[in-house]
Design a protein that fits this description.
185 residues; 2 domains; three-stranded antiparallel sheet; 15% strand; globular
């Protein structure tokens, strides 16, 4: 199976590399994926979208040799680069007491874990209740789950706007200053 397909499968299931790269035909039962997670040793049950089921099924038809995580990561970086995902991205993190800032092309940041983060972020943005996403991803604590969510301020604002539109609240306050004054009377 191509690294691209495995990556897409990871994005559609939320599984870690150690789990999606070790799937067996018997893990799929009635359009549900049953997998005992290697890291947490907990069972997860994942509904399979049509695309995920097709990739899963193709994996066992092709009988392609296993790939290690390092090779997989290099392959998906190469694929992302070829796909034109090249804009520079800055990432800051703490290392000891020091703040470190790195800038790299976006493709260079992509790893197998990006698929898992993408699943969690996409389901969160789609409005799937967090506790249900956590059941699929295997997260035990919300604090750990929320570390996976990667949305920028623009995406957050767009999502809030969509929610307001769904609730019919976008144009609720024609003039927020007047509404705020009226609420204080």
């Amino acid at each position: 199976m191509s690294a691209r397909n495995l990556f897409v499968l990871g994005c559609l299931t939320g599984l870690r590399f150690s789990d999606f790269s070790a799937l067996k035909p018997e893990d799929l039962q009635q359009d549900m994926l049953y997998k005992k997670q290697e890291k947490s040793v907990r069972w997860v049950v994942i509904p399979m979208r049509k695309e995920a089921k097709e990739i899963f099924t193709e994996q066992f038809k092709a009988n392609i040799q296993k790939i290690c995580n390092a090779e997989f990561n290099q392959n998906i970086k190469d694929i992302a680069k070829l796909a034109g995902i090249i804009e520079t991205v800055k990432f800051s993190y703490k290392k000891g007491n020091k703040m470190v800032e790195e800038k790299k092309p976006k493709y260079a940041w992509i790893t197998s874990h990006t698929a898992r983060r993408s699943f969690c972020t996409n389901e969160f943005l789609a409005g799937t209740p967090v506790y249900l996403v956590m059941k699929i991803s295997g997260h035990r604590r919300e604090k750990d789950f929320y570390r996976y969510i990667r949305i920028d301020p623009q995406e957050a604002a767009q999502k809030v706007k969509e929610l307001w539109m769904e609730r019919g609240e976008l144009a609720l306050f024609k003039n927020p200053i007047i509404k705020a004054i009226n609420m204080n009377e």
